[in-house]
Design brief:
single chain; 745 residues; mainly beta; Immunoglobulin-like; 6 domains; seven-stranded mixed sheet; five-stranded mixed sheet; 8% helix; flat
């Protein structure tokens, strides 16, 4: 593309900032035009014009006065353009590694100064920067060098293909980024061609490159701590006996890529917040990758112990670094014992404690913490075994929870109902050693095994009770009618191997929950041999509702002087009468009047009302009302005595009907209770609405009115006859009705 260039074009120096991203280095580039103030620009322009005019006059005068000499090459002479490129890092030109040392992550700015040292315009085609990072990564970034024409005072590109750099002009492009670790180098390259006077492109400008260097310094330090050859960075750590030897080792390493100076090391530790210094040392310097080892020793203390080693240092670029590591151990011995008692008596040999058969036997286990660590998670399990081979498993529990401190004691209790015979209880006790933070320790106590003995006597007693010869031990029991006689039968049996004496049989009314028990029967049995049984009876009168009475038998305990054994049994009955009262009425839906009998016209909307009442003395459940004639069924859950339920059914009168509703329910014993009721419906058929020809009458003629009147008279006579006949039939069924009543119509 051809262009025209003014021969008097003013040479200027332009500064450009371009934006891009330098990969891996995290570099960013920004483009802004360095422009002058508009007022200053106008002033400078005026001054330039004045100067240029003056210079023109001077040159003309000098030309007249001097001999003609060879003029310098014009910018449009066609000579190849010549460019130079200067690359700086943070304002300094570094031509060889390592260049500037910069902390990793610090800001880095690259400056690209492009100068036209030739005699022709140069058309800039591109600026690229090829880089290699410290980790071996590489890439190339294209840096934009276009100016924004809209920027105030910005020069407008004279060629759409790029920017024109006139002879003597210098363009500055900057790029920013963040320093990466290790050696970094980047080489910038400018691409341009000579721009001829006719606007065409001339020779390519070659070999315009510049290289810069920096070293990304990263300071780092680490410390690895071991105790007795083990890394123990978490609690509780190593389990040791009090006084055991402690040997700590600390490996300090320069993990960065620059020297460390003033390396300081300290280790502090203690128990329960108490702190003391374990060891301390310093080192003048530490090269990248270099390590040093520090050691310390001591003796194990009782309790949870931790110490933290800390190393600090300063890097050659002034960066402070720090690292720390911990080691844990717990000193102590975990141990406990177990002591067992039966009913408060130490009985570690047969026969042990004598107890009554069926009585509660309580085995108590005391567990003292005989070590110097906390103990937790105790389990006390075992079994009670008879000489005949019977076995009863049991688990002892404690009211106390949480860790058991050294020297403290915890009590566990295992209850058992004694059976007849010689028994031994064998218990196994286990526990877990923990520190004060409830964390499991490496050292653990051994389990403890302990025995206790008891001998159960053969005393035994039972009683069974019947109501009207039926076992009625749970509600509702037997069903009885209020007021009828109820017979109770008590069977007392000596189920043991020892004779029982002074047996007291007392039957008490316990049905009222809010009243004192009332005696029903009381009797004494002087003695009862093993295996023998005595049957007693008593009678009473059934009450309404749910009833319970309990018989209790007590006897002197042959195995425990001054104490007694007992047995009890219940009997239940439910006194009441199940009955249903049912009423049924019908009405025209419109007028709201219910009656046992209804006369109405065919097609009338009707409503039936069924009222079901519990007329008995017991609760009825599952109430169902069913009227098959009108295809209606209704349900209700239950009715208390005296309570009613109302059911409504609807329908259309289409024929005479005497319909019966059947009602059923269930009493507390599952017996069905029923009831029923009737309602009568008399339906008058609808009159004929068509003439003999099958057409609806049109009305208006005298003949029609006469025929209508005759039909009305006939209908009235028929109704009168029906009512007289009906009343005669009713009087036939009711001899007391007056025979001389008549119906006029």
């Amino acid at each position: 593309m051809a262009r025209s260039i003014s021969p008097a074009r003013r040479r200027t120096t332009r500064v450009i900032a371009a934006s891009a991203a330098l990969l891996l280095s995290g570099a960013a580039v920004s483009a802004v035009a360095q422009t002058a103030d508009p007022e200053e620009s106008e002033t400078e322009s005026a001054e330039a014009e004045t100067s240029e005019a003056a210079a023109t006059e001077t040159e003309a005068s000098e030309a007249d006065a001097k001999p003609t000499e060879s003029a310098p090459a014009d910018a449009d002479s066609g000579e190849p353009a010549e460019l130079t490129l200067l690359l700086k890092t943070n304002g300094v030109e570094y031509l060889a590694a390592p260049g500037s040392q910069i902390s990793v992550g610090a800001d880095v700015e690259w400056t690209y100064e492009i100068s036209n040292t030739g005699e022709s315009d140069a058309l800039l085609l591109g600026l690229t920067d090829a880089w290699t990072a410290g980790d071996g990564a590489a890439g190339t970034v294209d840096l934009p060098i276009e100016l924004d024409p809209s920027a105030p005072g910005a020069p407008v590109p004279e060629d759409p293909r790029g920017l024109i750099l006139e002879p003597g002009d210098t363009w500055i492009v900057t790029a920013q980024g963040s320093a990466v670790a290790g050696q970094f180098t980047n080489t910038a390259t400018v691409e341009a061609v000579t721009l001829l006077a006719d606007g065409s492109e001339g020779t390519e400008v070659e070999g315009v490159e510049a290289t810069s260097w920096y070293f990304g310094g990263k300071a780092g330090v680490s410390i690895v701590k071991t105790l007795n050859g083990e890394a123990l960075s978490n609690a509780p750590g190593l389990g040791l006996a009090p006084g055991a030897a402690l040997n700590w080792s600390y490996v300090i390493t320069n993990t960065g890529n620059i020297d460390l100076t003033s390396v300081e090391f300290v280790d502090r530790g203690g128990i329960d917040g108490a702190q003391s210094e374990v060891t301390k040392s310093s080192l003048a310097s530490l090269a990248p990758g270099e390590s040093t080892t520090v050691t310390a020793s001591g003796a194990a203390q009782i309790g949870q112990y931790s110490n933290t080693a800390t190393v600090t240092a300063t890097s050659s670029d002034g960066t402070a670094v720090k690292a720390a590591d911990q080691a844990w151990y717990v000193g102590g011995t975990a141990s406990f014992t177990a002591i067992a008692e039966t009913n408060g008596v130490r009985a570690d040999q047969a026969p042990g404690v004598t107890v009554a058969t069926g009585s509660n036997v309580e085995t108590t286990v005391e567990v003292p913490n005989t070590g110097d660590t906390y103990l937790d998670s105790f389990t006390v399990t075992g079994s009670t075994n008879s000489a005949e081979g019977a076995e009863f498993l049991l688990t002892a529990t404690s009211a106390s929870t949480g860790p058991l401190a050294p020297g403290a004691t915890r009590t566990f209790v295992a209850p058992l109902e004694a059976a007849t015979g010689q028994f031994t209880t064998m218990l196994n006790v286990t526990g877990v050693a923990v520190n004060a933070h409830h964390e499991r320790l490496p050292q653990q106590p051994s389990a403890a095994v302990v025995n206790s003995w008891f001998l159960a006597g053969a005393a035994g007693l039972t009683v069974t009770k019947q109501a009207n010869e039926e076992d009625a031990s749970s509600a509702p029991g037997i069903a009885v009618t209020e007021g009828e006689e109820v017979t109770w039968t008590y069977t007392v049996t000596n189920t043991g191997t020892l004779a029982l004496t002074d047996l007291q049989v007392v039957d008490a009314d316990t049905s009222p929950s809010d009243a004192q028990a009332e005696p029903v029967h009381s009797e004494t049995i002087p003695s009862l041999a093993p295996g023998d049984a005595v049957t007693l009876t008593a009678t009473g009168t059934a009450r309404a509702g749910q009833y319970r009475n309990t018989v209790t038998v007590t006897a002197a305990d042959p195995e425990r002087a001054g104490q007694s054994i007992s047995a009890a049994d219940d009997a239940y009955y439910y006194g009441g009468v199940g009955a249903l009262a049912v009423t049924k009425q019908v009405r025209e839906a419109a007028d709201g009047s219910f009656a046992d009998q209804l006369e109405t016209d065919e097609g009338t909307e009707l409503e039936w009302e069924i009222v079901v009442t519990n007329s008995g003395t017991t609760t009825l459940s599952g109430v169902v009302a069913n009227d098959g004639d009108i295809e209606a069924t209704a349900r209700n859950e239950d009715l208390e005595p005296g309570e009613s339920a109302t059911f409504l059914f609807s329908g259309i009168a289409d024929a005479d009907l005497i319909n019966t509703v059947e009602v059923s329910a269930t009493d507390p014993h599952g017996t069905e209770v029923t009831g029923s009721a009737q309602a009568e419906l008399i339906v008058t058929p609808a009159p004929q609405a068509q003439d003999e020809a099958g057409e609806e009458p049109t009305g208006g003629s005298a003949t029609g009115w006469i025929i209508g009147g005759i039909l009305v008279v006939l209908a009235g006579a028929g109704l009168t006859y029906y009512l007289v006949k009906r009343r005669s039939a009713d009087e036939g069924n009711n001899p007391d009705a007056e025979a001389d009543e008549s119906v006029e119509g």
